[in-house]
């Protein structure tokens, strides 16, 4: 269980309020609401500006734009985990009749299918969805602008197609599947495709004058899975807590982790950001933030979480432009993480360690390089090198006396202990890397053998 920490210190609360207030003023946003999550619950939530004469609160709805894509991704991965599809499957295997049947489902989730960024026709977010009543209407006659798999290219039509895939396989609209499979289990009662009071009006703020223009609220039709949802600071705070801690009722932990693993290369000039599966990744100093931003006419939104420190932040605004909401939300998260570092749970001995695992603990050598192997809870192992680098890994037990690497260089590689006739472990084999208890010993297990008489004291280059 995570340790319970008190609510924020007064100086942290004031710093968050100051950041919220100055941003709302400098961006001239009609309203702005932010929240911070720690240890699975909101520890700060505040709004500035006005919605119907009052500051926005926990239950004030805003349109969240492309954060919708992360919700759709959960539905697709649930289908994958049920065995209904794989991410390597061509779309046409499960949703026939589109012009992009060869695109893999995984490439659509990662925006690497090469699709155009926007559908044909007028600006879709300000146009009635009836202009594109059919799924075929969201794809251009020539839907590809890049060779598949060549590069990351953000595509709204790609997620429209994924929403249609969910609807086709579930036999009901994607919004109904979302409500039953994600929103209800997580208690997101104020999240959905249509607004309900209290909700914000979307505004465009004049760039050179303090006047505003209302933005139209459209039903996006088949483009809905790309950005149609409405939500609140309270609901997105719960969603951030889910992204941090998971919930088996919604998605398996391994699948949730998979969403934040980079699935595409970043732009050459932007190595601080990348994309996973329906999830944006942002590097801020030593912190990796994952989540998603959202932007549609009249509304901006972001949810970021940092798993190492167990902190998340969300922000919602009802303005079209002029507020770098992704950076603002990251600032909220970092204000708490920097001022109130996470207090770790107390150290406790493991409740049980198999004797065979304990016998594996300690120093191991790959050639002359020193590694340390430690048993963890639930039969996992951790292999680390004293020299640092990417050759360390955490290893998951398979149940047959072997382990599979989960991180770093050895991710996916199999660790197998080898024994002598008496049953003692002679060496470990991890993806053909041989680890022994002494440097290059015993000789019989070292690939290439050992030149006799072994270790020596003469100078290099001499005999």
Automatic annotation (TrEMBL):
Superkingdom, natural source: Bacteria
- Which segments constitute the DUF7586 domain? 353-437
Q: Which SUPFAM superfamilies match?
A: beta-lactamase/transpeptidase-like
Select a single GO molecular function from the record's annotations and give it. Answer: hydrolase activity
Task: Write down the Pfam families for this protein, in alphabetical order.
Answer: Beta-lactamase, DUF7586
The record's Gene3D superfamilies line, in alphabetical order, gives: DD-peptidase/beta-lactamase superfamily
- UniProt keyword terms in alphabetical order: Hydrolase
Chain ranges of the Beta-lactamase-related domain: 19-332
Name of the featured protein: Serine hydrolase
